[in-house]
Each structure stands twice: as structure tokens, then as C-alpha cells.
């Protein structure tokens, strides 16, 4: 049985941009008494607005061109070729940001600058290739998605436990980027990516053993 769905990866990559990446030490003495895990609070900053504006400016014409692209065999191959680069960098960025969260304190300016800069290539790659792929392709996720979800949960919970609570909404998408990125690379490798949404879905030759 086939389970066709749009790619989860671009959406999760964008979600990390919507979460505050700058953390400041709370001056409320009551918070420290309750829990050291709550001592940092999240703040939004202007790079997030710039990144989202850049994402929209680049993505809209790219999506329009992808939708109008002719239905030819090379179309899917081009998408898969570029998504390999998108996903590989995204996995690197997620692992790197998690590492930085342990290397520096949450409110350290160096950590904030480095992790914010590391998100810029992700914004450009998702805008140029990830979102056109999202709007014009579908994936047969099938049973491997269960393994990716379990791995994400089993990794996220320990990381959240050992980090201040301010990281919770970043660690989860970072873990999603890692495991769903690996899943997407695997599915691209075994040709489980198909035309979809604004393009006619190809006639699929189903494996008799599925």
C-alpha cells in the first residue's frame, strides 16, 4: 500500500525559523526557585524577519516556475538532485546547532550568532529548491516514517531533559530535520518520489509484494 504525502522536510526546516533563537537570562528570582531549567527565556530578533522575508521573495517565483514546468522525466531527477544538497546541509545544520547548544550557555552571544548564521544557507536552499519540491512532488513514506518518528522522539526527549526548557521548540525541529532528512535521502535513493499536486501523478507500477 502506498502512502503518498507532501515532503515534511521543508516545513520542519521553516518551522525552526519561527522559533526564537536568542535567549536571555531571566531576572525573575521566583523562576530560579522553581527550576533552573526555566532560567532562560526566548526572544525574537530581526534576523528572523529578514530570513522569512528572504524566503518569501525567493520562493514565490521559484514555486511559480516549478508549477509551470513541463511534465517530463527529467523534472523529477532535477528535484531529487538538488534536494540531496538541501537535505545534507540541513542535517549538518541541525547536528551543528545541537552541538552548539551544549558547547555554549543558552544566553551566549557567540552561540546565537553562529547558529543564526548557519540558518542562512538553509533559508536559501529551502526557498530555491525545497519549497518548489514541496509544491510539485509527493513521497511514498509508507512504514519507514514510523521509524523516523520513533528515532525523533527517542532523541528529542533526552536532549530536552538535559537542556534548559528554552531549547525545547528548537531541539524538536532539529531532530526532525536529522531523521526525516535521512528518511528523505533513503526514499529518493529508492525512487519513492513522484509527481504530485500541480503535476499529474505518474502511473505507478506497484510492486506486487507491497
Name the helix and strand elements from N-terminus to C-terminus, one letter apiece.
EHEHEHHHEHHE
How is the largest sheet built, in terms of strand order?
1-4-5
Average pLDDT, all residues: 81
Rg, please? Answer: 19 Å
Query: In total, how many domains does the architecture comprise?
Result: 1
Give the low-pLDDT segments. Answer: 31-38, 201-210
Count of alpha/pi helices: 7
Relative helix content: 55-70%
Helix vs. strand class: mainly alpha
Assess the beta-strand content as a share of residues: 5-15%
Q: Between the first and last Cα atoms, what is the distance in angstroms? A: 6 Å
Strand count, sense and closure of the main sheet? 3 strands, antiparallel
Name the shape in a single word: globular
Number of strands: 5
Keywords: Membrane, Transmembrane, Transmembrane helix
Transmembrane segments: 44-61, 82-104, 110-134, 141-161, 167-187
Task: Please tell me about this protein's structure.
By secondary structure, the chain is mostly helical. It has one domain (4-195). Helices cover 65% and strands 8% of the residues. It is built from seven helices and five strands; from the N terminus they run βαβαβαααβααβ. Strands 1-4-5 form a three-stranded antiparallel beta sheet. α1 runs antiparallel to α7. The longest helix is centred in the middle third of the chain and has 31 residues, at 73-103. The model is unreliable at 31-38 and 201-210 (pLDDT under 50). Keywords: Membrane, Transmembrane, Transmembrane helix.
